[in-house]
Design goal:
Helices cover about 20% and strands about 25% of the residues. With about 220 residues, the protein is of the alpha/beta class.
């Protein structure tokens, strides 16, 4: 399976090269950051985002981000979205540690419970989470700001792939025990080809914009 992944576009609708791509994964913050009112976001989703998604003509999986306040919209047929749900073989999880008064934020114990609530006996192989796991692709101003509950769940469940965003300028790579972590956003062509090893989870921070809301990374192609 070939996946195209990105996040944190904040109103930008990028031109995507979809030749050979089976799925698009979006790790949140699709709505413009200039206006957080539900009325504005709903109108933007209906007039701009929906037609863009429909034109892709392949499955799109979206976990809403902390700047995406509307979660009850009527989605195009090829869009699967959620804040904490398993859809097909993909976990969609929006919740992040508290940071100001944004959407989908909670204390770590609440995040842990919400992860537990949507998990069955089988682990979805693909996770789309807005937050990075704590200690991996999450360093901002020399401090780790990812979710500890999410990291614990990854260590326990070992999904094959985690795609995240939220912290725009996360570190390029890291490791959690036997978990192999990569943020390939800094690679010139934005592509990665890594063999899957049993017990290893690949993690990608696919934020497209930097902290000044300027494009500095391309969408990432991942072979799974």
């Amino acid at each position: 399976m070939r996946i195209l992944a990105f996040s944190d576009t904040h109103g930008l609708l990028p031109e995507l090269v979809l030749s050979g791509i089976d799925r698009v994964l979006i790790a949140g913050d699709v709505c413009p950051a200039t206006n957080h009112s539900p009325a504005f976001q709903r109108l933007w989703l209906e007039q701009r985002f929906y037609p863009w998604v429909e034109a892709l003509r392949i499955p799109v999986y979206l976990a809403l981000g902390n700047h995406d306040f509307v979660d009850d919209f009527t989605a195009p047929q090829n869009l699967r979205y959620g804040t904490h749900a398993v859809v097909d073989d993909v976990l969609l999880f929006s919740w992040t540690p508290k940071f100001y008064q944004w959407a989908w934020m909670a204390d770590e114990d609440v995040i842990a419970r919400r992860l537990d609530d949507i998990m069955g006996e089988d682990t979805p192989p693909i996770w789309v989470t807005h937050s990075p796991p704590y200690g991996v692709c999450d360093e901002v101003r020399k401090a780790h700001q990812g979710s500890k509950a999410l990291r614990k769940a990854i260590e326990w469940r070992c999904p094959r792939l985690v795609v995240c965003g939220h912290l725009h300028e996360g570190a390029p790579e890291g490791r959690i025990g036997e978990t192999d972590i990569r943020n390939v956003s800094f690679m010139p062509d934005g592509k990665v080809h890594l063999a899957y090893l049993r017990g290893n989870t690949r993690v990608f921070n696919v934020s497209m914009l930097n902290d000044e809301y300027q494009v500095f990374r391309k969408p990432v192609v991942i072979d799974l």
